[in-house]
Design a protein that fits this description.
Elements: H1 4-20, E1 28-32, H2 77-89, E2 91-93, E3 109-111, E4 114-116, E5 119-124, E6 131-136, E7 148-152, E8 172-174, H3 181-188, H4 191-205, H5 210-232, E9 233-235
Antiparallel strand pairs: 1-5, 2-5, 3-4, 6-7, 8-9
């Protein structure tokens, strides 16, 4: 059973992330909250400027999002805490709103004493536009909690139509060799490699923007490349696609006779 201070810790974590990223982030929280929320609003009701003239200019009113639930009419203490958590953070419950669960809000717990909705997917409202699927699956024999399956489909980067010669050919690839497994593990455990990994771990903890993250990702790739390349890297020989002539197919003219 969740305690009050669990939601306090969640709120502290969200506040920490938002401060670190200067509110340039979207958040996702999911799991068993042991919270029954019925269809109670997880947003502040009637907080528009028309109703509250004392709100600051930068205040953004909550969007009214209807929510459905088969557990309608049942709310417990943890449910009230979860609803308050959503109102304070701007996160919104996905159950009963999106995907195959839209306008349903299926039970997520099915036990011998009854059914309820206590497992949730909760995310920033900005992410609702990118939810590809959300489904509460049927009860199973492995657990009295139903599995929740969801995914996001974010905007994909546009692929350039530039001609192929503008791109670099891939000139190598990594091929795993199980016979070199022990040697690979030994290289990973070498002091120089472990020092770099520890340093990388520290840098990751201090990331504050996308440039820091990209830098850490590059460092991680370089560390693995230094260890893996001598063992598994193989050269790829590319045929020049622009080549129109070949020694074997080039027609040779006979020598001129004088």
């Amino acid at each position: 059973m969740l305690e009050t201070n669990v939601f306090d810790r969640l709120l502290d974590s969200v506040s920490f992330i938002e401060n670190k990223t200067r509110n340039c982030c979207n958040l996702l929280v999911c799991g068993d909250f042991n919270s029954r929320t019925s269809i109670c609003p997880d947003y502040v009701v009637n907080d528009e400027f028309d109703h509250m003239s004392v709100l600051p200019d930068e205040y953004i009113s909550d969007t009214q999002l209807p929510r459905f639930s088969q557990d309608e009419g049942h709310v417990n203490n943890n449910g009230l805490l979860l609803l308050d958590f959503c109102k304070q953070t701007g996160l919104r419950i996905m159950n009963g709103r999106v995907g195959n669960d839209s306008e349903i809000g299926r039970y997520t717990f099915v036990g011998h004493r009854g059914c309820s909705v206590v497992d949730y997917g909760i995310c920033s409202q900005n992410l609702f536009n990118f939810i590809k699927e959300f489904e509460v699956q049927e009860p199973n024999i492995l657990s009295d909690h139903c599995m929740i399956n969801f995914s996001f489909d974010f905007i994909k980067q546009q692929v350039s139509d530039a001609p192929s010669e503008d791109f670099e050919y891939v000139n190598s690839k990594f091929v795993w060799n199980n016979e070199l497994k022990e040697e690979y593990l030994e290289k990973l455990q070498q002091s120089l490699t472990t020092e770099k990994l520890f340093e990388l771990n520290s840098n990751i903890s201090c990331c504050t923007d996308s440039n820091n993250i990209q830098s850490c990702l590059s460092d991680f790739v370089n560390i693995l490349d230094n260890v893996s390349a001598p063992l598994f890297k193989k050269k790829i020989y590319n045929v020049d696609q622009n080549e129109t002539e070949n020694d074997y197919f080039t027609e040779k003219k006979p020598n001129s006779m004088v």
